[in-house]
Amino acid sequence: MSSGRYLFTSESVSMGHPDKVADQISDAILDFCLKHDPLSRVACETLVTTDHCTVAGEITTDAPLTREAVDKIVREAIAEIGYTDDKIGFAASTCQINNVIHAQSLHISQGVDTGGAGDQGMMFGFACDETKSLMPLPIHLSHRLVEHHAELRRSKKLGWLRPDAKSQVTVEYDADGTPHRIHTVVLSTQHDETVMTRGGGKDGKDYFTDAARQMVIDQILLPVLKKERADLIRGNMVMIRPGEGDTELADGDIACHINPTGCFLEGGPHGDCGLTGRKIIVDTYGGRGRHGGGAFSGKDPTKVDRSAAYLCRYIAKNIVAAKLAKRCEVQLSYAIGYPDPLNVWVNTEGTVATGVTEEKLIELIRANFVLTPKGIIDGLNLRRPIYRETARHGHFGRDNADFTWEKTDKAAALRAAAGL
Question: What is the distance between the terminal CA atoms of the chain, rounded to a whole angstrom?
Answer without folding.
Answer: 38
